[in-house]
Specification:
Layout (H helix, E strand, L loop, with lengths): L5 H35 L5 H18 L3 H7 L5 H4 L3 H24 L6 H19 L10 H32 L17 H37 L1 H4 L11 H17 L3 H22 L9 H23 L8 H14 L8 H15 L4 H10 L7 H20 L6 H17 L6 H30 L3
Helix pairs in contact: 1-2, 1-5, 1-8, 1-14, 1-15, 1-16, 1-17, 2-8, 2-14, 3-8, 5-6, 5-8, 5-18, 6-18, 7-16, 7-17, 8-14, 8-16, 10-11, 10-13, 11-12, 16-17
């Protein structure tokens, strides 16, 4: 497979299988976030609900793009993947996958809604930190701290949004909706009014699709991490595109950057721009010494990948720090146009990878869902979930996750929905309407996930390195 020897082929298959298992567990761990409200409001029966959710999770992965997947890949600096031996890469990937699987299974077993996003990110941080320490880098540059900070902020803010916005929507529903039935719990097996049932099924569909488009992309990012680590010859660049077509945008960017440097006054920013221009020259020199894509050797493909990732991340950094305010807009747009043509060579995923993850998540959604459903439906609030509470929590969850996917940020479906249900309970009868034991368990899991997964993945990585 991909020209690898039998032992590496076996390791590649093992790593991909672990990534699919992670997504499968993610499916049944997070199914409750979509189906709990429709089940507990009698809008759908359990079996049709989980099949419906599974199908739309599948569609979410397949149609949701790869912006979140690219964000996952950016949590580790490119050199941590391309400057190690393949055996060390395998140790890294297996450590982060196994730690994520172990923690997800443990929290599912105890019926605790826990964030798969937190779990995965903690696992990535663990291997990144150990990667730095083993190399003698006490500054821990083996972790992309800028991207980690951005991701962590999204994970922190999203549950607050879920809690606050759900309260707000429920207050508005009470003001505008005069049908009192909407604010009562279902009686026995009695279905809700048709319009609210339609809304609940719509929001269940939205959460399922949004979950697939966000959480599913994390699986895509994981598999791309595996493929780039173990078979870089085939996956460092998207070889369905002709690398030699990068030459023209690279030359245009070099010309524009020369203009940019003449307008920059800060020597630090000017130095960064000069380095970016040098990276573009490096891409051109690498392409010039090769005649065709087929002849492009592995080290050159990896070199081009590193150059592109370095250029994109540091140009974005210049923009965020306001360094380009002194540069005329036409020059900046010219560089951005070149980057837009070059980025797809590294920010991609083959269709078979997306299909594999979509199937893993979709099938996982259809099994093992009951433990978390019971927690969300019965144990967060002291009262039975009303139609209005279910609809408002799901509506906020679908919107928040969808917005995060558009911006390329991973968020926790579990945290957004659980906090939304909690917010709906507080909006109804205040804090006394929450079950303290459940909230405490969720909060403890939320606080412990990062440190436990960091220690677990870092420890496993260090252990595996002894045999690499």
């Amino acid at each position: 497979m991909f020209g690898l020897d039998p032992s590496l082929t076996a390791l590649l298959i093992l790593c991909i299988l672990c990534a699919c298992i992670f997504e499968f567990i993610n499916g049944f761990h997070d199914t409750a976030n979509a189906v709990a409200t429709v089940i507990y409001t009698n809008s759908m029966k359990p079996v049709p609900a989980v099949v419906w959710s599974g199908f739309f999770n599948f569609l979410g992965v397949f149609l949701g793009g790869i912006s979140v997947a690219a964000g996952i890949l950016k949590l580790l600096p490119p050199e941590s993947l391309v400057d190690q031996s393949i055996a060390q890469n395998v140790a890294m990937v297996l450590a982060l996958l196994l730690s994520a699987i172990i923690w997800n299974l443990a929290t599912w077993w105890f019926g605790i809604p826990c964030s798969s996003s937190h779990t995965l990110i903690g696992s990535i941080l663990g291997v990144g930190i150990v990667f730095s320490l083993v190399g003698g880098d006490m500054s821990l540059s083996g972790v992309n701290w800028s991207k980690t900070k951005e991701t962590g902020l999204s994970l922190l803010v999203s549950p607050l949004m879920g809690f606050g916005f759900t309260m707000g929507i429920l207050v508005l529903m009470r003001y505008f909706i005069k049908d009192a039935r909407v604010f009562h719990a279902p009686k026995n097996d009695q279905p809700p009014p048709k319009w609210i049932r339609g809304l609940l099924i719509f929001t269940c569909t939205g959460v399922s699709f949004a979950h697939g488009s966000n959480d599913g992309q994390k699986g895509v990012g994981l598999i791309m991490l595996i493929l780039i680590s173990i078979a870089p010859m085939h996956f460092a660049l998207d070889l369905e595109k002709d690398p030699f077509k990068m030459e023209q945008p690279a030359r245009s960017a070099i010309t524009a950057m020369e203009k940019m440097e003449s307008q920059l006054t800060d020597p630090i920013y000017k130095g960064t721009s000069e380095r970016l221009r040098a990276e573009f020259f490096d891409i051109l020199q690498t392409l010039d010494k090769n005649k065709s894509t087929a002849e492009l050797p592995e080290k050159d493909r990896l070199s081009i990948r590193k150059d592109i990732i370095f250029i994109v991340s540091n140009f974005d950094k210049l923009k965020k720090e306001g360094a380009l305010k002194a540069v005329d807009k036409s020059t900046v747009k010219s560089i951005e146009s070149s980057l837009k043509e070059i980025k797809p060579y590294t920010t991609y995923a083959p269709s078979w990878v997306i299909l594999m993850v979509a199937l893993s998540l979709g099938i996982g959604t259809m099994v093992g869902w009951k433990r978390i459903v019971v927690t969300i439906g019965e144990k967060i609030g002291k009262q039975h979930l009303t139609y209005a509470q279910g609809a408002s929590a799901e509506l906020v969850a679908a919107s928040t996750i969808g917005l995060a996917t558009l911006t390329g940020l991973p968020v926790s479906t579990t945290q957004v929905l659980s906090s939304g249900v909690a917010g709906s309970m507080v909006a109804t009868n205040g804090l006394k309407n929450l079950q303290g034991a459940t909230i405490k368990s969720i909060a403890i899991a939320w606080l412990l996930t990062l440190p436990i997964t960091i220690l677990l993945s870092g420890g496993l990585y260090f252990l595996f390195l002894q045999f690499a």
